[in-house]
Design a protein that fits this description.
disordered N terminus; five-stranded mixed β-sheet
Length: 375
């Protein structure tokens, strides 16, 4: 087992394991701070829901930040049994998740985060290729996420093709890195937890990320320029996955309870994520941030890349990582995205009840708690 835990943390996990037999406790780790939507509006809210729904019979003990695991270890920590459930950014461990990384390559061209979140959840739970990936990893997928549009957050003005040349930019995926290289920039691959220090120390000039982190991770203290160049939604990995052994140990009733709690939770995350990004952008000017539109030439260049370069890059990623049937994988995912785009057509993104009902009725209610993820 990899050694990530301090003695105090080990003690905390062991204490969790000694709860009375009548109660079932799921330990979970998410490395974002409590202020981040994936943590506060996701894991911490789910913990409250389970506590209230079951009267404490099923609980979720959440470790946030890097108190148990560093960012890239949220897959291995799950497999090693350090915790039962994690969030994981799939592009951090591409060789372990080749199929996921192929699909993540498509994110740069997707502009509807709510649709993306639901399409990913459906596809990862039901597509045979994705189910085979999770079976191979020994984990069970339970829930997705999709960020608001990523944009450029910089410590120097970057709004034109000329200005982006020579800039070092933290990128979230190989496809984003390929575009940065194509316009004369230098991509840098580091976890988002290192964005603040990297910008502050000048290790890179810009980051691609959602605008909420201007506020939630105080990027506006070290990056005074934001360019509204939309470079897609990030959805690699998962919001919720649980070890297959722990999932099988849960009673069917508790598995059903967890599945029933997730749709509204995922919608809440997506709504709050977008809301927090909008709020951060609105407040940015008060923190000395200049918010600018991209120049026409910069936008046109990105649009051309998305139109012609993304699918070839997805297939190249598949070849490099050994993902089988990349063309079929991409084609089936595009069908899933179109399905959910149609299901959400005309539905207000502010209507949490309607969105949660659609996700539940068209996906989670159909999951058989007795057999899903249980070999």
């Amino acid at each position: 087992m990899k050694q990530y835990l301090s003695s105090a943390a080990i003690g905390a996990v062991l204490m969790a394991a000694t709860l009375p037999a009548a109660a079932e406790n799921i330990t979970a780790s998410v490395w974002f701070p409590d202020s981040h939507p994936l943590t506060g509006d996701g894991y911490l809210e789910l913990a409250k829901t389970l506590e209230e729904t079951t009267g404490g019979d099923l609980t979720l003990q959440v470790y946030t930040g890097t108190s148990l695991l560093p960012p890239a270890a949220h897959l291995s920590g799950l497999q090693d049994g350090i915790v039962d459930m994690t969030y994981h950014a799939g592009t951090y461990t591409p060789s372990d998740l080749p199929e996921d990384n192929v699909l993540a390559s498509l994110g740069i061209g997707l502009d509807k985060s709510m649709v993306a979140m639901m399409a990913v959840a459906d596809f990862y739970m039901n597509d045979a290729g994705m189910k085979a990936m999770f079976d191979r990893l020994g984990i069970v997928f339970l829930g997705s996420y999709a960020t608001p549009q990523y944009m450029m957050i910089c410590n120097t003005p970057v709004t034109t093709l000329e200005e982006i040349k020579g800039k070092k930019i933290r990128t979230p995926s190989p496809v984003h890195a390929a575009w940065v290289e194509s316009v004369g920039g230098t991509p840098v691959s580091v976890p988002s937890s290192e964005m603040f220090s990297g910008l502050e120390k000048g290790q890179f000039d810009c980051v691609f990320n959602a605008a909420n982190d201007l506020k939630s991770r105080s990027l506006w203290d070290v990056a005074k320029y934001t360019t509204l160049l939309e470079v897609g939604s990030y959805f690699a990995g998962w919001e919720y996955a649980i070890s297959a052994d722990r999932w099988a140990d849960l009673s069917e009733e508790h598995r059903r309870t967890l599945l029933d709690a997730i749709p509204a939770n995922l919608v809440n995350i997506a709504q709050k994520y977008q809301e927090s990004s909008d709020v951060a952008l609105a407040e940015a000017v008060d923190h000395g941030v200049t918010v600018s539109e991209p120049s026409a030439d910069l936008q046109a260049n990105l649009d051309a890349f998305v139109a012609t370069g993304v699918e070839p890059m997805a297939f190249e990623t598949a070849t490099n990582l050994g993902a089988p049937d990349a063309e079929g994988l991409v084609s089936r995912f595009k069908e899933a995205y179109a399905k959910w785009d149609e299901l959400l057509d005309g539905v207000s993104r502010d209507d949490a009840a309607a969105l949660s009902k659609i996700l539940a009725e068209n996906l989670y209610d159909k999951v058989d708690a007795a057999s899903y993820g249980v070999n």
